């Protein structure tokens, strides 16, 4: 039985059948509830692969991932979908937004699927989240009319909609200007402090990484360093 919120034991990921490419080499670590963790490292070091495994969007070749005392490889597809809904929020590099819907509809859709047509409260919450990420002027625009950075912020608002205990984000501020990046970081930090949400974010932004609680650096699929940031 795992003790930490997230416990990873000897995680290995190999891509390819004939030509094998080992991109994660026996990663072990623990993350406690409420931690705000940055994953950093060069391009190709395995950060997104690691986050995909952690989010149960892909299967590990070897090793264990425990989240909330659940060994995720024990779950079948249906159980996994439910587990993800209850525990995990995602902001990924490819936003997976629905092009035929507006920004606000996209923020509400996962909740809609899970709980039925949105209540007034839910609509207000979606509106508020879009305002917080700086998108109050485009809430009713179709996704296809938004810029890359705007889409990214819609994806972030959508991930924050269902108050998941764990939020995984791959470069959530990747294409954004410094002021917006700072604003979004502050928003995530507020949520982290108010709701105790655990954040694990991949970032190339050193200023943002330096403001988190802990920086895990991956190099060639291995943990090169794992540092708690002194405040
Ligand atoms: N679906 C896949 N099939 C085969 N190889 C893959 C796949 N996804 C990633 N890789 C390989 O795994 C390695 C790690 O990739 P990954 O995307 O995890 O890196 P990253 O650290 O997220 O890089 P970046 O900072 O550029 O996003 C790379 O060598 C990549 O080519
Ligand atoms: Mg990546």
Automatic annotation (TrEMBL):
GO terms for molecular function: ATP binding; ATP hydrolysis activity; transmembrane transporter activity. One of its GO terms (cellular component) is membrane protein complex. Residues 6-231 form the ABC transporter domain. Its EC number is 3.6.3.-. InterPro entries: AAA+_ATPase, ABC_transporter-like_ATP-bd, ABC_transporter-like_CS, MacB-like_ATP-bd, P-loop_NTPase. Signal peptide: none annotated. Keywords: ATP-binding, Hydrolase, Lipoprotein, Nucleotide-binding, Transport. CDD domains: ABC_MJ0796_LolCDE_FtsE (cd03255). It is an enzyme of class 3 (hydrolase). It holds the Pfam family ABC_tran. Belongs to the ABC transporter superfamily. This is Lipoprotein-releasing system ATP-binding protein.
């Amino acid at each position: 039985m795992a003790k930490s919120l997230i416990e990873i034991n000897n995680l290995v990921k190999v891509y390819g059948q004939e030509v094998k490419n080992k991109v994660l080499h026996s990663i072990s670590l623990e993350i406690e509830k409420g931690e705000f963790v940055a994953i950093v490292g060069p391009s190709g070091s395995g950060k997104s692969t690691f986050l995909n495994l952690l989010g149960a969007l892909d299967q590990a070749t070897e090793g264990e991932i425990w989240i909330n005392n659940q060994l995720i490889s024990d779950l079948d597809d249906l159980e996994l979908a439910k587990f993800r809904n209850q525990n995990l929020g995602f902001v990924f590099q490819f936003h997976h937004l629905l092009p035929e819907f507006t920004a606000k509809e996209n923020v509400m859709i996962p909740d809609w699927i899970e709980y039925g047509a949105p209540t007034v409260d839910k609509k207000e919450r979606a509106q508020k989240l879009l305002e917080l990420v700086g998108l109050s002027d485009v809430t009713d625009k179709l996704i296809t009319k938004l810029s890359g950075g705007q889409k990214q912020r819609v994806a972030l608002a959508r991930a924050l909609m269902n108050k998941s205990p764990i939020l995984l984000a791959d470069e959530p501020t990747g294409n954004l200007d410094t002021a917006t990046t700072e604003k979004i970081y502050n928003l995530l930090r507020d949520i982290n402090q108010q709701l105790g949400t655990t954040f694990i974010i991949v970032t190339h932004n050193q200023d943002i990484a330096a403001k988190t609680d802990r920086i895990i650096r991956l190099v060639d699929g291995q943990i090169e360093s794992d540092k708690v940031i002194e405040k």
